[in-house]
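Exo-alpha-(1->6)-L-arabinopyranosidase ([Actinomadura] parvosata subsp. kistnae), 923 aa
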Amino acid sequence: MIMQQPPFRDPAAPLRDRIDDLMGRLTLEEKVGLLHQYQAPVERLGLGAFRTGTEALHGLAWLGPATVFPQAIGLASTWDRDLVRRVGAATSDEVLAFHHKDPAGAGLNVWAPVVNPLRDPRWGRNEEGYSEDPWLTSVMATAYASGLRGSAPGTLKTAPTLKHFLAYNNETDRCTTSSNLPPRVLHEYELPAFRGPIESGAAVAVMPSYNLVNGRPAHLSPLIGRVLRSWAPDDLLVVSDAYAPGNLTSPQNYHDSLPEAYAHAIKAGLDSFTQDDDRSEATLGHVRAALARGLLDERDIDAAVRHTLSVRFRLGEFDPSTPYDDINDNVVNCPEHQALAREAARRSFVLLHNDGLLPLRDVTKLAVIGQLGDTLMEDWYSGTLPYAVTARAGLAERCATTFCEAVDRVTLTADAGPVTADPAGGPLRAGAAEPGLFDLFDWGGGAYALRAVATGRFVSVEGTTLVNDQPGPNGWEVRQTFRMEERPRGTHALRHISSGCYVGVAEDGVLRLVDDADQAAWLAMDVVRSGTDEAARLAAEADVAVVVVGDHPLVNGRETEDRMTLALASAQDAVVRAVRKANPRTVMVITSGYPLTWTEGDLPAVLWSAHGGQEYGHALAEVLFGDADPEGRLTQTWYRSEQELPDLLDYDIIASDATYQYFRGVPLHPFGHGLSYTTFAYADLRVRLAGDVLEAEVTVTNTGERPGVEVVQFYTHQQRSRVKQPLRRLRGFEKVRLEPGESRTVELRLPVADLAFWDVTRGRFVVERAPHRLMVGRSATDLRLSARFDVEGEVIPPQSGLLRAADHDEYDAITFVDETRQDGDAVRSDAEGAWILFRQVDLTGAATCVARAGSTEGGMITIRLGDPLYGRPVAAFPVPRTGRYDHHAVTASLQGVDGVHDLYVVFEDEGVTLTEVDFGAGA
């Protein structure tokens, strides 16, 4: 007798019907079991275990050797949608290969791409994102996610998850800081990066971030249900970040108990708890407690489980077969993926400066110099390199090369005697007759690493003992880096960065960590071989010197650690200066996950790339020797100093003039910058409005003597507005390959609706009636042609009646806070005299106004006309003492005022919260 399959296993049935059928078969307890990252099997229905969360940011990560592509910031610097999509597709192939071999170890819900706009390059995770521009971020994320999800109709290859929602660009205190997000910044800058990949269906899941936004944990954001899910064409799965749900009680102290916190999270839209690794019982116990206490009901559980099951169905889990069943181990690091890794690395290189030295010609002897010259780095979210083509290896295939790391070789001597390293990799000891030798690596930001010459292994800390057994800085908790603190007589104390402890010498001579700085050993560090001297000597003997400098992805900025400076490590900077002095034909090659600054201003050529994966050296050689034109363009502004940046926690890019859109200074290198080995001319910019679309075209000609690649970039600027507008904003781009003398017409079609900005007076996007300028060129500041066009949009009328405090026009000394735990934004004063401004308020006929406000200490609010200090006061409100979320209505008469005015709401006291002011009540 043939058993009939249940309807949920019928691939011909509509997806909604299949989900409904399976939901109807599950008990409440079985549904609860599906709310954890490690979803429990339901054996009676034939449902297997399912796990969310396979890392695949630029190749499959954490599961063993797999193809490693350039970092995400490097992929974006290609400005090539199709290439990024193909990298995503190759990555999903390898995820599936691992999954077919080990379904439990390699799940099909992949946690990539990262779409946080890179507003501040000091963010420790800068290399994980794509761009400081939200639209370009959206374009690249959509491309990568499209490759991950596959092209088979109706079946997901993998299930891409966007990270991290919302306003997350700091690692410093990331679980307790709140990102201040005014409405315009939210709608014009943060949300657009998420919208494209969700709305297109490329991404099918989202992960909230660790931080709070306007005082509310991101995991509890009402925007998850109200905005993100409104964009999604299908069910959108929301997975928590690791251990973030537990933060809701401590350290965030947002809820008193985990059942309350978890109930709130589920109601806000969270579907899957990434908590306690594979130990789900505690988490699910809190969910059960929430059900028992009436904080949740079965409908809330059903909503979350439906989102999860929808993704599992679309992955083909309950189908007899999928189009991807035949993918196997043969695809992992296959020749095609190796070639793609090489292509991606080659196209990601950005030529920052060139006085004609590049491409290299007539070179018979090349000096390769620098800490990064013969190594490739893995970052926290990269895969395990199956092989590594370093700069030295790639260039050695092209001509004779010499090499030095250009690091100082030193001895260390304590009071007890010289320090030596155990040849077997064991403890370091003081007291030997002859000193041991150590190579000193400067990774910037005051972070140093020591490598024992005797073993070729790096000094690390095991327990509290210094040993020498590591290949380099590595791991989640990097234990191989130290700071050097000056002590008397030219000595230094070593402070272990990870633990904060000092290096001391125990009675047995072993170097161990001590808590007290007074117990730290005073170490004399003597240089026995100068890295800069060796580099200069080698450079002087070569036709060309290539100095490879940059960062270590796990040091001086990474997940959990922001960087305080953009400066190249001082020792590396000194090497560059010495090499340039020794050989005028010097190329500086920067390998980093973020923009850098340096002091040598007379370098003939500077080339940048992110950490480029396994084929980096081959790609570098192809670009240096001119086999390929440097195609990359910057997707971030390179500032001259971190002093040009606002505070790391200042998320208001509009008020702080941040990113290329608002920055008024002259950057070291602008957004969109990148040179070619040829030259290009722009001509005949033609612009017209055709109904609701702006149409433009420009002719680009290769005016040089060799083939080249140009990235034609279109920007707009609104020239008159009620509000502060970006100085320029990227609207489109096209990458063109041109032979010498060849011309091509590049077109832009921009919906006029895309020119809208968020109107705080009415809470919606609006296209203003205004003149605009379209600009086209090679970067955000190298704009070759421009043309004016006029848009017949709206005229924003004066505002009146109820004004939400968060929807103001300008502010000073204000923090955005949560109006209630569930929804809404309010403002709180950070100092006496703080204020918010409402422009053009129509008070005609208004006699009174009502404010909803509160303060734990009480206070006073004054409304002034035209100026927060000297403007005429027209109303004053005493603010009562209240609880955190108790906002009371207080009424004041309007004195002698009529017509339209700019109103300053001035907080006379610190700690006053305001939700709204109503000029229509009782008028």
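The domain at 659-791 is CATH 2.60.40.10 (Immunoglobulin-like). The CA atoms of residues 222 and 774 lie 37 Å apart. ok done for today
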